[in-house]
Amino acid sequence: QVRLEESGGGLVQTGDSLRLSCAASGRPVDLYYLSWFRVFHGEDRELVARATLIGETTIYPLSAKGRFSISRDNAKNMVYLQMNSLKPEDTAVYYCAARAANRDNYDFWGQGTQVTVSS
Predict the structure, then answer these.
(1) Edge-to-edge strand list for the sheet holding 68-73
(2) Which of 37, 43, 67, 114 has the fewest CB atoms within 10 Å, measured from its CB?
(3) What is the pLDDT of residue 43?
(4) SS3 of 4, please?
(5) Nearest alpha carbon to residue 29 among 56, 49, 4, 57
(6) Eight-class DSSP state of 23
């Protein structure tokens, strides 16, 4: 069992930056893919970023490329999402999630952190 807890969300203005943090406990995270998802109001969740076991990273939404980055610190059992040049359309609840390398589905989720970007 992996427990995940996000922090770092809040209300910011267009153009500001935020760094979301996700603390993992229960098991070492170096055995898991770590990702960030977001859920817009009333919509399906969207995969935002993923970090593999060896730290290879991918940002998925075209709108986030060049502005967002993901990083992981296995020694600290942490994963981060750096978000720069934030836009109102980035407003969502952001979740971190973990899945074992041999699984397709994410089994472990945090409770989410709200990010609101005002125009």
Answers:
(1) 3-7, 18-25, 78-83, 68-73
(2) 43
(3) 85
(4) strand
(5) 4
(6) E
Backbone region of residue 111 per phi and psi (left: phi > 0; alpha: psi in -120 to 50; beta: other values) = alpha
Handedness of CA 67, 76, 105, 8 (dihedral sign): negative
Per-residue pLDDT at 41:
83
Quote the tokens at residue 1.
């069992």
> Tens digit of pLDDT for each residue in 75-113?
999 999 999 999 999 999 999 999 998 898 999 999 999
pLDDT for the residue numbered 112: 97
Q: List the Cα angle 42/44/98 in 5-degree steps.
A: 125
Name residue, tokens 């992981």: 72
Tokens of 99: 């899945």
Q: Report CA-CA distances (Å) from 117 to 13, 28, 89, 92.
A: 5, 33, 8, 9
Hey, which residues does 51 pair with through a beta bridge?
34, 57
Q: Among 106, 96, 89, which Cα is nearest to 43's?
A: 89
